[in-house]
Backbone:
């Protein structure tokens, strides 16, 4: 793979925002009706997977069961006037996969490494840890500068 400084900078920027934030907006849909919820998340080192947990008795779980296509919005805003020019917003698009037994310990460790306070929730009988396989990151900075990173690159 050839060294591409723009791509390397974009990956660093994505990683910086994702590692600095604890919560994301998660968009799901069912019957063409979008639904947005707030979730705690963690990302794998290679940025290919975003992990999150949910109770199985939620609308988001029901929506994902019917339509695994999702998107996340993760941003660096501080609710200040300067956010319009300095905040970075990242949309991650992909689809949800159920985690198999062989992968569970690894992904659970990553998620709880970022959110140890959620151990009881994650260990609950009605909670599931899910893996979003990310296809693309869309990064908006300086209010309107858009960059994209396809994970197939």
Residues:
């Amino acid at each position: 793979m050839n060294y591409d400084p723009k791509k390397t900078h974009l990956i660093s920027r994505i990683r910086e925002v994702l590692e600095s934030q604890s919560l994301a907006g998660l968009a799901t849909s069912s019957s063409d009706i979008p639904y947005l919820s707030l979730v705690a998340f963690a990302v794998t080192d290679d940025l290919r997977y975003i992990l999150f947990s949910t109770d199985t008795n939620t609308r988001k779980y029901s929506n994902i069961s019917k339509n695994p296509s999702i998107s996340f919005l993760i941003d660096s805003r501080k609710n200040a006037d300067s956010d319009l020019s300095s905040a970075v917003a990242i949309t991650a698009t992909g689809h949800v996969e159920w985690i198999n037994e062989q992968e569970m310990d690894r992904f659970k460790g990553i998620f709880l490494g970022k959110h140890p306070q959620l151990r009881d929730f994650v260990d609950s009988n009605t909670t599931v840890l899910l893996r979003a396989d990310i296809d693309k990151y869309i990064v908006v900075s300086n209010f309107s500068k858009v960059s994209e990173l396809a994970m197939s690159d």
